[in-house]
Amino acid sequence: DLAYCIYTSGTTGKPKGVMIEHYGVANLREYFIEKQGVNENDNVIQFASIAFDATVSEMTMGLLCGACMHVLSAEIQKDTKAFENYIEENKISIAILPPVYLNQVKLRGLRTIITAGSETNYDLVKRNSHIPVYSNDYGPTEATVCATYWKHNSSDEVPERIPIGKPMNNKQVYIMNGEALCGIGVPGELCIAGEGLARGYLNRPELTAEKFV
What we know:
The protein is built from seven helices and 13 strands. Helix content is 26%, strand content 28%.
């Protein structure tokens, strides 16, 4: 059954409604439990706007994985010092943040920091190496928020270019040139398969047929 419809413009600038089914959210839950170890001892924040699909990840951790979810006020979000204090005082253990915001704060006490929504970089990962786990999560809205993840443990070396990692639970990723797989190191189009793909675009059958092949 349909769980929600969320609008995204992606890189086109033209909003389109993405229809996500319950199975995709259930699969996202398993990712957070199995790969990120989210449980009832965790404190997480709701940082993202309800209009942005990252909030689905945050609600999944809180409502479906048993973590305690802290809903931040706009005032705390806008004040980086207040945000840093809130994270420490409320013993927040996992946070999902855009890289551009993480770049403005110095966080203490987290066990895992997840960045998503835009590209991260070597300096940002290095600067947060005091946090035990840094996870770079990637995915379009059409794949139920997240499709791949790259986890960095603080003791590991940081690569010069931060990868988007490997597919999360029950998903597959292919680099394609038309209908053919690309060779290693050959540029191509990133295609995602597996559980959690959207039903399609709301009232856009032609676009759905074009993109969901």
